[in-house]
Every structure is written in structure tokens, then in C-alpha cells.
Amino acid sequence: MVNQDDPRPGSEALHGTDRDRRSQLVDAAVDHVAAHGIADLSLRRLGAAIGVSHRMLIHYFGSKEQLLVEIVRTSERRQRDLLSRLHLEPGLAPADVARLLWQRLTDPRLAGQERLFFEICGQALRGRPEAAPVLEGLVTDWLEPLVAAETAAGANPATARSRARLGLATVRGLLLDLLATGDRAGVDAAMEEFLRLYYGSDRT
Amino acid sequence: MVNQDDPRPGSEALHGTDRDRRSQLVDAAVDHVAAHGIADLSLRRLGAAIGVSHRMLIHYFGSKEQLLVEIVRTSERRQRDLLSRLHLEPGLAPADVARLLWQRLTDPRLAGQERLFFEICGQALRGRPEAAPVLEGLVTDWLEPLVAAETAAGANPATARSRARLGLATVRGLLLDLLATGDRAGVDAAMEEFLRLYYGSDRT
DNA sequence: GACTTCATGTACCACACGGTACATGCGCGG
DNA sequence: CCGCGCATGTACCGTGTGGTACATGAAGTC
Prior knowledge:
The first copy, chain A, is mainly α. Helices cover 72% and strands 0% of the residues of chain A. Chain A has 9 helices and no strands. Residues 6-16 of chain A have low confidence and may be disordered. The structure holds a DNA duplex.
């Protein structure tokens, strides 16, 4: 009765509702963080925002650090889901696939997530531990499918890797531009210019 | 004798040594911030690091906010100086100019500054007020010289703008890739691929 | 040589933070 | 109906923060 908190939340002691509550909390936390940033997050404010006392966040996640790890992981998963959920009808030209992907990425409803992405990058580059694992997958995780697409399109492996890396970097750079300036038309035009260079001027 | 601090540092009351001291402090602060990040900066730690009491930082800058403004502004100025100090001998092909600029930007000694750039971006995208002014100049300030270079190379204005925007975004995306992965060779290869697409395969 | 000015330091304040101890109350097994 | 386990809340603690009041001492002035 002295200490009734399970010191190992997430262990086998958690079943059913408890696990549900936990993921429900982390979902709400990601939403809040996508909207308000991760920089000056405090357990108290987060708790107040999602309707729980900061005590419970500690209870479910052990510490602020672990909660942040969970938030970052979940946010990453959401990002990746967005790509994998992109089921394309076959017969589309690569340039059109890219254009479609760009359209989805720049959906204003995703702006919060994209901002969060760059914010987490900034923190991770500083060595903030809970954001550091992101750096690993930041490039490589996205590279694999892109390389696959390039090789399928007939590029030799080395070129495919460079081209994939280039495409990823350009998309991110333009995304940053869009978030900073909000100049949708200008950024879209730059993207079109890129597609022209990347896939050739003929849209097959 | 009650309050001997000038409430308006930077006003006409500051002359000579005072102003020098101030800029000396902000220089040291930028160095420290480039090395240790801006996220969890505290006046006390910064003061200890650069050899001054946190009291004096308040004295010279009025508040932490204003100090951060100064730091960001100075860091920006340094970045831009880096570009303008790039006096190139004429007769270089645009692709070679770009390659040279890329070499300088990716100098490991600049890694701290580059990281700081992305960190500030992340914060600014969140609406942190002292970083917000950065967003304005983040694209446009760099676009002007690039557009000038493109038009000089014979592109029509609209295309020049899109191409400039694209080049800037790609450089930044690849810079982020480099900082995250450290894979210098891979990123350089992607850059070469971009230059090939951007300026054509022939290196005049 | 007394007076003033001002840069700098020391000690302090109120506050918000992460984290902990303890209370409370709900839901379920007997 | 009881009793226990557990989710949740409240009150607290130590710490570090930005910012302020006041002390101190070294220059410069008349």
C-alpha cells in the first residue's frame, strides 16, 4: 500500500484497458505536440490539455523522457503510415506518382506533423537522446523504397541510390520552404521544375 | 541609486567599451550556442561558459528573449557572410561555382552552425517569437542572388525563380541528410547527380 | 581627496518544473 | 456486503529558472 505504482508500466502487469489507456494517451499527446510543439513541453500543460493530471503521465510512461520517446516513435509511425497507405493504381508514370505523393505531403492538414518533423530533427541533431533514434531512420528508412522504385525504373544500383537520396532531400528542402514561406504556388513550381529535370521533360 | 541599470541597453547611453563588451558577449554566446544548442539554454550556464555572471547577460540584453534575438540575428549574419565572402574568380562555370559553394557549406568546421540553423528553423516553425523573423529571410534572402545568377545564365525570370528555389531546397535537404547520417560520400554523390541534372551532363 | 558613475558580483525572489508520497474512490471477486 | 487492487487526484519536495535588489570596488571628475 506504500507504493502502488507498478514500476514497470508496459510489462505483463498491463492488460486490456490499461494498455488501451496508455496508447490513447500517447495518441492525444502526439496530437497536442503536433499542434503546440515539443520544445517547451511540460507534463503539467500536456496533462491539462489532454485532460489528465501530470501525475498520470508519469504513472503510465515512467518519466518525461520515456513519454517523449513514445511520442516521437508514434509520430514517426504516423509519417510512415502515410506513405504506405498510398496505394496507387498501376500504370501511373513515376513522375505522376511523385507528383501525387507531393500533393499528399503538402496537404495543409499535415502541416502540424511536418513542422513537428523538422522540430524533432533540430532537437535530434543536438543529441537530445529521445530524438536521436530518429536520425538513423531519417534517411535510410525512406531510401529503401525509393531505391527500389529507381532500380525498377531501370537505373543502375549506384545511380539509383544517389537519385533516391537526391529526391528525398529535395522534397524535404521544398517542404521546409513551404512551411517557412507558405508560398504554395512558388514551391509547387519549383517542384515541377524538379520533376522535369528528374524524369525528363516528356510526361509518359 | 535604487536602480542603476540602464533600462535601455543599446540606447545612446552606451558608448565605446560598453558596446564592445556587448558584441563580444554576443559573439561568445553564438559560439557557445553553435556548440551546445539553443533548446535548453539557460542564462546561468551560458554565463558560466563564457565567463560572466547571468546577471550581466540580463544587464546587457535586458532579457533572455532579447539575447536570443541577438544570437539568432548574429548567427544569420555569419551564415550570409559566408556566402558573400565567397569571391570567385571569374571564368568558372556555374556548376563549378555550385560545387565550390557546396564544398564550403559542408566543411565539418561549419557543422555546428548548420545544426544551429536547423534547430532554429525547427523552433521558428513553432512560432517561437525570437526565431520567427528568420522565417521571412529563410528563403527570400537567399533567393535574390540565386535568381540573379540564373537570369544572368540566360533563364527567363519565372524559370529562374523556380530553379533558384529548387537549388536552395536541394542544398538544404542534402545538408540535413549529411548532418543526420554523416555519410559524406553518399551525399556528395547525390549532389553530383543533382548538378548533372541541373546544369546538364557536360561540364563546360 | 571626496563625489559620482557604472560595470560587475552576490544574494535573493517567485515560479514552474519533474518526480514522489499519500489519499480517495471506483469496480470487481468473495 | 465486504475488501482489495488499481486508476486517479492532491499536496508536497528539491531544483533550476529568469529576473531583481543591493553591495562593492574601480575608474574618472572637479
